[in-house]
């Protein structure tokens, strides 16, 4: 259990939690961002939803973490290693201060009904704890 804040639990997004990922990100169907726009790793012809499914299996770091409040999925945070994220590598607006493979957060998505209850803070804490536990270069 990562990032426990009162009754909030934070866990990595995995294939067995796909229904919860879909509950957080799937409200717009295939038109939604599926936490892809900031990554810059799109494959021509691949739907964003399918890209996220692929990333669940191939990413060195989970592509996101889920927050659960009282057992119900409440939010998502998108995560990537900065040096493996083309949009961050080539960014002119987010300058690099070093070339360490730091974990980076690209987005938060808190479901309606769960906002202003500490979900985003728990997600941030959970990701920092996971990064430290994984030996990330910066946490």
SSE order, one letter for each helix or strand: EEHHEEHEH
Treating each run of at least 4 consecutive H or I residues as one helix, how many helices? 4
Helix content: 25-40%
Strand line-up across the major sheet: 1-2-3-4-5
User: How does the overall form come out from the CA principal axes?
Assistant: globular
- For the CA atoms, what is the radius of gyration? 15 Å
Structural class: alpha+beta
Unreliable residue runs? none
**Main sheet characteristics:** 5 strands, antiparallel
Strand percentage, roughly? 15-25%
First CA to last CA: what distance?
A: 18 Å
Q: Number of DSSP strands?
A: 5
Instruction: Give the mean pLDDT.
Output: 89
Q: Quick gist of this model?
A:
The chain is α+β, with helices and mostly antiparallel strands and 139 residues long.
